[in-house]
Backbone:
């Protein structure tokens, strides 16, 4: 009996759902994603893949991890019939692709190293890492293992990023929540990365100099791009809505007071990536975003002095 090549099989539309596995059950994303992927009656259902297995993980020194990891794991198992496995290696034979979901970015490098042995495409949820060096190490090891991967914020597919990008824009200012986590050396990586990704979706790569000042209530990051564009990120604490302003030669465009965002467009891109292995967000852009946040952190430590990306 002859079988169709995988690419042709997928193109026919008759392929079975891809089997997905979570690494880390300490984020609300695992429940939100499973609802959209596994329930065909959900109005936001994204077809083509189902979550079938999960490794709990968890970080004992991060409150938002250890207080949630068991509860989310229990819900996955009892409500969604997701198999819980004792080790990352146990996912290899059970899944076609992996979502590395651990809320603690410090855990991603060792977990990615183990997951790479499965040789399955991988989505790594935010934050990719807690440092620029770890982000680069993840990229290097997955490249060496020939494992396609990407990471993104769902805000890349939100209202500001998708409706306010113009070819003649001269700059942009974006804002969003800015809680931090004491164990993450890049303070923006914990939550401010959402706003940083919004800025990069609008302006693209090419930042060369970054400055950052902070107070108890906010961070303000200003950057200059090689093409002369200026970008600003303001993160607010404890929380805030997302928004933005785009500057054009003859127009200033302001986002709505309440901007719309959803996990659904991102999940569509994730499933498409798992099916095709075509990366929707270049790894090089992700690494520049981490170099941007690294320069911002060095600037903050130097009292706001502008820093080049390294």
Residues:
């Amino acid at each position: 009996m002859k079988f169709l090549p995988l690419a042709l099989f997928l193109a026919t539309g008759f392929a079975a759902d891809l089997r997905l596995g979570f690494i880390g059950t300490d984020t609300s994303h695992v429940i939100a994603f499973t609802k959209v992927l596994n329930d065909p009656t959900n109005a936001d259902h994204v077809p083509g893949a189902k979550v079938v297995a999960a490794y709990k993980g968890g970080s004992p020194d991060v409150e938002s991890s250890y207080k949630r990891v068991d509860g989310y794991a229990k819900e996955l198992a009892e409500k969604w019939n997701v198999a819980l496995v004792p080790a990352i290696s146990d996912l290899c034979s059970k899944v076609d692709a992996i979502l590395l979901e651990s809320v603690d970015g410090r855990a991603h490098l060792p977990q990615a190293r183990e997951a790479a042995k499965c040789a399955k495409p991988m989505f790594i949820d935010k934050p990719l890492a807690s440092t620029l060096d770890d982000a680069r190490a993840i990229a290097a090891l997955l490249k060496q293992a020939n494992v396609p991967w990407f990471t993104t914020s769902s805000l890349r597919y939100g209202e500001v990023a998708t409706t306010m990008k113009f070819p003649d824009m001269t700059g942009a200012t974006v804002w969003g929540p800015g809680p931090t986590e004491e164990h993450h050396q890049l303070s923006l990586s914990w939550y401010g990365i959402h706003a940083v990704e919004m800025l990069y979706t609008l302006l693209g790569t090419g930042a060369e100099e970054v400055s950052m000042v902070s107070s108890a209530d906010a961070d303000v990051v200003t950057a200059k791009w090689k093409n002369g564009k200026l970008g600003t990120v303001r993160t607010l604490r404890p929380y805030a809505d997302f928004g933005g302003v785009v500057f054009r030669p003859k127009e200033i465009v302001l986002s709505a007071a309440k901007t719309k965002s959803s996990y659904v467009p991102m999940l569509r891109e994730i499933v498409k990536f798992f099916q095709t292995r075509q990366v929707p967000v270049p790894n090089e852009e992700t690494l520049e975003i981490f170099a941007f946040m690294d320069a911002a952190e060095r600037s903050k430590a130097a009292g706001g002095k502008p820093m080049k990306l390294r």
Observations:
- Residues 211 and 306 are 4 Å apart (CA to CA).
